[in-house]
Design a protein that fits this description.
Uridine Diphospho-n-acetylenolpyruvylglucosamine Reductase, domain 2; 3-stranded parallel β-sheet; about 25% helix; alpha+beta; binds flavin-adenine dinucleotide; 5-stranded antiparallel β-sheet; Uridine Diphospho-n-acetylenolpyruvylglucosamine Reductase, domain 1
Length: about 280
């Protein structure tokens, strides 16, 4: 998993499958279900922490093979396969003068991962621009899901269950292409200023508690630069836990727990990880 995640940690998997169409994905899920082979789905791996012991079964990786974009009838409506990168989607939209997704400039995920996480930045989130999703059940059955207001929560889609997102339907608005590009450049610049550069991370490690910033709490607890093995609390942005050198998943989990403990001591607040833990993390 270390090659499939931006944190660059995690043990082996038996195989990685790269479906290139929804029909492929459906056939794959049917076969895995028949053979009772366990699986997990991953996009860009930019919000996961995979265990050192690896994952049972196979990883289904939705990447550029499943990344087509199609305009639909209706102003600003587009159909995007789940493996499309957000940056690729933003470029496509900017060229065609479709605005609304600029907040996502610099988020290094796929459309599927971004929807599952309801990714967001600068006060905006995926929930504002997504109208529907195409889902696939564990057994390979396809369905369409229309979003209701409030259904996507802060950094999660609670009702998704075990379904795989195979595509999303976005409703964007006409905008000046040059203005979209300028906005994306500006937000990417601000991101570079605030976030650690050239460091392996999964972005913000903890969710922000209501009316608080996790980074502020971690910094106030004096934890910037705290290390466990090769994992470290970034000295630039305290909510980024970075793989400084040769970290293991165990280092990250121990650092995560230490940060949670110290922040609880100093502020009384429980920090909840935003990063998704995959695999078994039993050891203390
Ligand atoms: C430098 C950096 C900056 C970041 N900045 C931000 C930010 O500003 N805002 C923000 O919200 N996030 C941010 N992130 C986190 C991350 O990029 C987003 O959450 C992103 O949307 C995750 O997409 P992914 O494809 O990498 O998902 P993955 O990390 O591969 O997966 C995340 C979760 O989604 C599930 N999943 C993935 N694809 C699918 C699918 N098709 N169907 C069902 N489940 C799926 C996985 O099983 C896993 O549980 C940042 C990360 C990094 C490394």
């Amino acid at each position: 998993m270390s090659t499939l995640s931006t944190l660059r940690v995690g043990g082996p998997v038996a195989g990685v499958c790269y479906p290139a169409s929804t029909a492929d994905l459906s056939r794959l899920l049917k076969a895995l279900s028949r053979l009772t082979i366990p699986w997990q789905v991953v996009g860009r791996g930019s919000n996961i922490l995979a265990a050192d012991s690896g994952l049972a079964g196979v990883v289904i990786l939705l990447g550029s093979e499943l990344g087509r974009i199609q305009p639909l009838a209706g102003e600003g409506l587009i159909h995007v396969e789940a493996g499309r990168s957000l940056s690729g989607l933003l470029d496509w939209c900017a060229e065609r003068g479709l605005g609304g997704l600029e907040f996502a400039a610099g988020i290094p995920g796929t459309v599927g991962g971004a929807l599952k996480m309801n990714a967001g930045a600068w006060g905006h989130e995926m929930a504002e621009v997504v109208e529907a999703a195409e889902l696939m059940s564990r057994e390979g059955g396809i369905s369409r899901h229309e979003f209701q207001p409030g259904e996507l929560a802060y950094r999660s889609w609670p009702g998704l269950g075990e379904n795989i997102i195979s595509a999303a339907i976005f409703r964007l608005r006409p905008a000046n292409p040059e203005k979209i590009k300028a906005r994306c450049r500006e937000l990417s610049r601000r991101r570079r200023e605030k976030q650690p550069k050239n460091m392996r991370s999964a972005g913000s490690f903890f969710k922000n508690p209501p009316d608080e910033a996790a980074g502020r709490l971690i910094e106030a607890a004096g934890l910037k630069g705290l290390r466990v093995g090769g994992a470290m609390v970034s000295t630039k942005h305290a909510n980024f836990l970075v793989n400084e050198q040769g970290a293991t998943a165990r280092d990250f989990v121990r650092l995560m727990r230490l940060v949670q403990e110290k922040v609880k001591e100093t502020s009384g607040i429980d920090l909840e990880p935003e990063v998704r833990l995959m695999g078994r993390f039993d050891d203390p």
